[in-house]
Write a structure and sequence with these properties.
Elements: H1 2-18, E1 22-30, E2 33-42, H2 50-116, H3 120-135, E3 139-145, E4 151-158, H4 159-163, E5 169-170, H5 177-184
Antiparallel strand pairs: 1-2, 3-4, 4-5
Helix pairs in contact: 2-3
């Protein structure tokens, strides 16, 4: 009773300040969970009849059912989206794992090839051909630095094979991208 009286006084103060003379708050409940409230206001004194309260209760039940259904559908949709995302991530991880396995196998073949022969040209040819598959590239090449700083082509793969002959030389230093990389002692690449 005391709590009810305090609530009544609070409602009266707020209501008068907002121009409300009568109100009804009907909770929206679904499966024992409070979802919100349905409200009816009057700017004049009004005594709610039992029929009005039943109608308000019925509306509140329908609204609660609708809200619960929308939330449930949204939760299901969210779960489906998360499952699809997880499947995409798993598929990507499988592809990445397969790519890593293929790279590891190719690197092992290259290591065996380098141990099988001391012929630099033969090993270089295997490296540039392997690079095409490893990087899914259109072309690859391998140049070695000459004593004068120039870069001499010892193996070309893919499209570079048709463009350059073995022994093709480019100047070292900042006059070419290859020379720049050699001069800096660091990788150089395009974005």
């Amino acid at each position: 009773p005391r709590f009810q009286a305090a609530i009544g006084e609070l409602i009266a103060l707020v209501s008068v300040a907002e121009g409300i003379r009568a109100l009804a708050f009907i909770p929206l409940v679904s499966h024992g969970q409070l979802l919100g409230k349905f409200m009816v206001y009057y700017d004049a004194v009004h005594v709610f009849s039992e029929d009005e309260m039943r109608l308000a209760g019925s509306i509140a039940q329908h609204v609660a059912f609708g809200v619960a259904r929308v939330r449930s559908d949204a939760a299901i949709e969210d779960l489906l989206l998360r499952e699809q995302g997880a499947r995409r991530e798993a598929d990507a991880a499988r592809v990445e794992s397969e790519d890593r396995r293929l790279i590891a196998e190719e690197l092992a073949r290259l290591a065996r090839a380098m141990n099988e022969t001391l012929d630099v040209t033969s090993v270089a040819e295997r490296i540039v051909e392997a690079a095409l598959g490893l990087f899914r590239a259109r072309a690859s090449g391998l140049r070695l630095a000459a004593p004068d700083g120039s870069l001499v082509g010892i193996a070309f793969g893919g499209a570079m094979k048709a463009l350059f002959q073995l022994g093709h030389t480019i100047s070292g230093g900042p006059v070419s991208v290859s020379g720049l990389a050699t001069l800096q002692g660091a990788a150089v690449w395009s974005d």
